[in-house]
Design brief:
about 475 residues; alpha/beta; about 45% helix; 7-stranded mixed beta sheet
Length: about 475
């Protein structure tokens, strides 16, 4: 052990080694930082020797030096690699919460890049040459698309709900049906958000049935809001009764000083129902019914960045904009750019909306998916003899807590490797491929659903499978 310790090279010797110079160029670290990393690697080797746990090359040999620099390179690569990285989603779930939900359109991405690269008029009125408002950049678009009198954007829909309740109903009653006290991802409950806001929750009805007379009986001089929460992440089936938006608008209009507020959750700006996909209400319809204020997400069915959008009557939105919490939950320039780029496609009409990946992937036909799957399997079997492949009719999910009862007809590629299990192939695609590829497994078959895979990503997926030998 003493001989090994004496054989450990000095730091200055290692700094003069050609491998150190090469790593300086390759990693783009400065001299001091790479030296610090080198000392840590050498100290780890010394400690391992002292504990009689060293099982590497003998210190003092060329192999030891080579291994030391390889360890250093691996350490630097791991430490200075981004943890947020691209993933290929081959599950078919379009709004996969764990994989970042909605993919942005090219227009939105270009606008984000341009805004991030340069100074911008985030809070500057170019025409007047004075301070402006960040709310102004997307408000006109939201008004045009939804028909609302005014709008504002916060950092997510939970914040939107919180701001509305805090600003409009603190220490006052908010009437809501028990069947709508939903829990969204990460154990965030509407009831808990309401309590945190300082609003007084007044539950009515039962889990499966709430009637108009339940709302009427619950009204009191302390009522501030009648709230409806769209149950976008679950469905209650069977013996059920809910009160429709138009009925609640009528009831609210008969009360003095009471607001009707609907949290739409997913926030559909496009009518998917005309394609037989789900029953999500379009935001404009809810606004047109006379709803005072609505909130919805930006990164679900809308297909944009994470954001919470609040739209409704001008007097109410102005009150929200002036509230102290508005600054706490405001969005940055990149989010506004991404949202503006996305909304611009909506404003241009149906054809431009197909530029938005969420809409495009939801509407792709089963015939198109079948053609893509057939071509993919042909290419795979031509280049690899390790797989058995079949194409099956299956279904894709929308995901993101959206349209839980909707299953989109799809064609999936079912793969069986001759020597590896589906789990082993899945792990290799996930951990040994850059970018990582996430798939589904069913009955020991690896399923690939190309609905959520772009045409450019198909080639990467194909090459990754070809490399899996066994």
């Amino acid at each position: 052990m003493k001989e090994w310790l004496r054989s450990l090279p000095a730091i200055h010797e290692l700094q003069n080694h050609e491998s150190f110079t090469q790593l300086l160029q390759k990693t783009e670290l400065d001299y001091t930082q790479l030296t610090k990393q080198l000392k840590e690697v050498l100290d780890q080797a010394r400690e391992s020797i002292l504990k009689q746990q060293w099982n590497g090359a003998v210190p003092g040999t060329h192999q030891f030096i080579d291994d030391l620099f390889q360890t250093l390179e691996n350490k630097v690569q791991n430490q200075y690699s981004f943890t947020l990285e691209k993933i290929i989603n081959a599950t078919g779930t379009i709004l996969h919460t764990n994989l970042g939900r909605a993919r942005l359109s090219e227009n939105a991405i270009a606008h984000v890049v341009e805004t991030a690269r340069n100074y911008s008029n985030l809070e500057y009125n170019i025409k007047e040459g004075e301070r402006g408002s960040r709310h102004s950049h997307v408000e006109a678009l939201i008004r045009d698309i939804t028909g609302a009198e005014a709008a504002m954007v916060v950092n997510n829909n939970a914040s939107a709900v919180y701001l509305v309740l805090r600003a409009l109903a603190k220490d006052k009653e908010v009437i809501v049906s028990r069947g709508q006290l939903v829990e969204i991802g990460g154990s965030f409950r509407i009831s808990s958000i309401m309590e945190e806001s300082g609003a007084i929750l007044k539950e009515i009805g039962t889990t499966n049935k709430t009637h108009l007379y339940d709302y009427e009986k619950a009204l009191s001089p302390n009522t501030a809001i009648i709230m409806k929460v769209h149950t976008s992440n679950f469905k209650v089936m069977g013996f059920t009764k809910t009160v429709e938006t138009d009925e609640l608008v009528k009831l609210t209009n008969e009360q003095e000083g009471v607001i009707f507020y609907e949290d739409l959750g997913s926030g559909a700006l496009y009518d998917f129902r005309k394609h037989g996909i789900g029953e999500e209400p379009v935001v404009r319809e809810v606004i047109d019914m006379g709803t005072d204020v609505v909130t919805f997400s930006g990164d679900k069915l809308l297909g944009g960045p994470q954001a919470g959008i609040i739209a409704g009557k001008k007097a109410i939105i102005n009150q929200l904009k002036k509230h102290q919490l508005a600054r706490v939950v405001r969005v940055d320039k990149m989010t506004l750019a991404a949202l503006e780029g996305t909304l611009m496609d909506y404003a241009r009409g149906d054809s431009a909306m197909r530029n938005i990946p969420t809409i495009r992937d939801l509407l792709v036909s089963i015939q198109q998916l079948d053609e893509r799957a057939q071509l993919f399997v042909t290419k795979l079997l031509q280049k690899s003899s390790h797989f058995q492949a079949t194409i099956l009719q299956d279904s894709s999910q929308v995901g993101g807590g959206t349209m839980p009862d909707v299953f989109l007809p799809s064609m999936v590629i079912a793969l069986k490797h001759h020597t590896l299990t589906a789990e082993q192939v899945s792990r290799k695609l996930r951990t040994e491929t850059k970018p990582a590829i996430v798939t589904r497994i069913q009955k020991d078959e690896l399923l690939l659903d190309l609905r959520s895979v772009s045409l450019e990503e198909e080639d990467i997926l194909l090459e990754a499978l070809i490399k899996i030998q066994g």
